[in-house]
Amino acid sequence: AGQQLGSFVVLSGGNHSSLGEQVDPSEPPPTPDFCRGYFDVMGQWDPPFNCSSGEFIFCCGTCGFRFCCKFKKTRLDQSTCTNYETPLWMNTGKPPSRIDDPLHDPTRDKTNLIVYIICGVVAVMVLVGIFTKLGLEKAHRPQREHMS
User: Fold this and answer.
1) Are 113 and 83 members of one domain?
2) Is 133 helix (H, G, I), strand (E, B) or coil?
3) DSSP one-letter code for 1
4) What band does 51 get if pLDDT is binned at 50, 70 and 90?
């Protein structure tokens, strides 16, 4: 049944059993499941999908993380899940007002005024410092006599 190939043993003629799951030959093959769309634990919408890839035909996993599997006994009962609507914690309140919003009054916005005042004060202080330094240097220079 097995052949030695280098350090590996190659087996042939597997029985394709499905880990103890009995298949009744008179029963029609199961139809692929449809995993419904849901909001995952991060609040991202995961769209719905069909489980129709080879043996992976059952919708399995948890309400917050779904995937396709091949064993019916691990199928997810999607009717018990409640994460089909936007989570409450994602509703953080009113979005910020837009510029074309009639409720937004740009005359009440004082952010730019504060920046202008601070920059003006700094500029005046720099100019006062420069002129003070020039005045002190001129005052400490020795006087020259004018020769005619």
Assistant:
1) no
2) helix
3) -
4) very high
Residue 11 covered by a domain:
no
Q: How far is it, in rounded angstroms, from Cα 85 to Cα 95?
A: 20
> Are the C-beta atoms of 47 and 54 separated by less than 8 Å?
no
- Please compute, for residue 50, the number of CA atoms within 13 A of its CA located in the half-sphere on the CB side: 5
Type of residue found at 94: K
Query: pLDDT of 1-16, one tens digit each?
Result: 455 555 555 555 444 4
Amino acid letter at 106?
Answer: P
d(CA 102, CA 22): 68
14 in any annotated domain: no
CA 42 to CA 68: how far, in whole Å? 20
Determine if the pTM surpasses 0.70: no
Band of residue 118 on the pLDDT scale cut at 50, 70, 90? very high
